[in-house]
Amino acid sequence: MKNLIKYILIMLVFTGMIACDTLEPVDENRLGFDFVTTNPNAAEGVLLNAYTGLVNQYSFSEAATDDAVNNILDNSYKRMALGELNAQFNPASRWSSFERVFWVNRFLEIIDAGETQWSRDTLTNEMFQMRMKGEALALRGLHHFYVLQAHAGIGESGELLGIPYFTEFIEADGNFNVPRLSFEASVQAIMADFDEALNLLPTDYGLSEGQVDEWYSDLENFEYVKYQTVNDNFFDLRISGRIVKALKARLALLAASPSFLNSQSYYNMAATNAAEILNTIGGVAGLDVNGNEFYISDDNIQSSEMLWRGSIGGNTFNIEERMFPPSVNGNGEINPTHNFVMAFPMQDGYPATEANGFDPQNPYASRDPRLEKYVVVNGASFGGGTINTGFGGGNDRLDSIPGQSTTTGYYLKKLLQPEVRINNDGTAQGKRHANVYFRYTELFLILAESANEIGGPDHQVGGITARDVIAAIRNRAGIAQPDNYLATITTTEAMRELIRNERRIELSFEGHRFWDIRRWGLPLNEPAKGYFFDENNYIELPSVEIRNYQPFATYMPIPNSETLKFSELEQNNGW
Fold first, then answer.
1. Rounded distance between C-alpha atoms, residue 548 and residue 80, angstroms
2. What confidence score (pLDDT) does residue 298 get?
3. Which of 181, 190, 184, 163 is nearest to 248 (CA)?
4. How would you classify residue 12: left for phi > 0, otherwise alpha for psi between -120 and 50, otherwise beta?
5. Which domains does the chain carry?
6. Which residues form the RagB/SusD domain (predicted)?
7. What residues have CB less than 8 Å from 464, skipping those under 6 apart?
8. Rounded to an integer, what distance in angstroms lies between the CA atom of residue 421 and that of residue 317?
9. Which residue from 166, 176, 178 is spatially nearest to 140, judged by alpha carbons?
10. Between the N and C ends of the chain, which has fewer C-beta atoms within 10 Å?
């Protein structure tokens, strides 16, 4: 952490340089912290650094779960799943998020000092201060959440511990040797930052005059035209009140989960925050009809499914090149498992078992339509041809080219732009992509899971039940209606299993499964299965990759380098 001071000073010099209008020499003494506190461009640069490191859907941590295998032999998640996870090697560590926390705390010092003039107009200046302080507090809470999700756990003392919580900027010679809070105290500290941010941020950017939040509209001498300057649509990708409420729901669900507090009050908090947002879009009627397809076309990136996303980039094809099958000039990196494929029900909504019409020798017939959208199966049309992962499949056949051809019999389709083409001569037709941080479907599933744990399948929170949510999601997916299988679900336990399965499918390959398995306390060592057509029959490959997690790996380690430096930092049990 002490090295952070060096990085901040370097960045402040750079920010000060790019904020200048000319290349004329600048007085060196103005490029320190005094300069930053008085120059709005430089000060805002400190805040914007806290937007770096936001966790997005392209981590592909599923390769460390029962949902996927990574083809690259030295892939970090593969190595972790095969038994290398320890306090010195943890690719899922998020301890570095504390660096962003210190950026935020430095910015809060700047803004609380009141020396930065964002506008010469008093009202506009006040609103800029409000909004950016709200952003900073929300981002401080979010980065602490990232650390909590990755490093909370049962300590060596036997207590359920959270993380240190830093609310001040610490100088290089300051005291970083602080103990972890209890898990619940950590949750409450993050909630406190989120709640304070909610009293400062606009619910959404670009609100019309009649929709302006009261903490802005009640300001003395309020003028809407000045409000627009501060909170216009131009700032849409920044954190807003709506996003903070969604993050509160996500945090509360983590806290409520079986591996942590197993708490009805936190389930209530998760469901209430989720319902409050979802009712602003019409409840389950507001579920985006195309929300189960990540990309349909370039235009669909602006989909109402995206609650929070990053900026839309230019035309690229690097993700597709990593994931496409070899016959369409890809490297086949992520291979969904047969475990994951079997999570998809039949089209009539019943689980895919032989008792419900599943034919192991015709395994992809009459299945949930989402399977075709998310996974390239044997015999699928893809990239202008047919992908054969079985006998006679050439480069696409299972294990044909080590490190490139599938190891499970499947290739990934979800998250890929369907119109990307990679040509044999090395040229490509790229498409635009965006990092997505939060989707409305996740929020619907948070409500469903929480409401069911509170009172069962038909318990209402904000007029919405778990059954309502799952019915809407499965109807959108193309499950035959009426959904007779859903009608058989009458207990909390049965609905819990269905919700978890729907979450596994809907949020697949977006970086959720790795954390869900842990917060639910599910087995980590499920072998990754494959499926192969051997010219005559399909055969199951029961252990394409053997998982080898320690029994205490539900809670991941604090980095060893940190516990060696700081005696107050208690390690999680077993590491």
1. 8
2. 72
3. 190
4. alpha
5. 3-52+94-239 (1.25.40)
6. 324-575
7. 275, 278, 279, 283, 284, 447, 451
8. 8
9. 166
10. N
Give the predicted TM-score (pTM) of the model.
0.94
- Rounded CA-CA distance 168/177 in Å is 14
Residue 306, SS3 per DSSP? strand
Within 13 Å and on the Cβ side, how many CA atoms surround 491? 3
- pLDDT tens for each residue of 176-235: 999 999 999 999 999 999 999 999 999 999 999 999 999 999 999 999 999 999 999 999
In sign, the C-alpha dihedral spanning 268, 274, 279, 280 is: positive
**Spatial contact of 61 and 331, defined as CB atoms under 8 Å apart:** no
Residues in the chain: 575
The span from the CA of 292 to the CA of 479, in Å, is: 13
Burial class of residue 548, CB neighbours in 10 A (0-12, 13-18, 19+): middle
The helix-helix angle for 440-455 and 466-477 (nearest 10°) equals 140
> Token pair of 573, please?
């049990």
Extract the runs of DSSP E, i.e. beta strands, from 160-263. 160-161
Closest CA to 59 of 514, 501, 411: 514
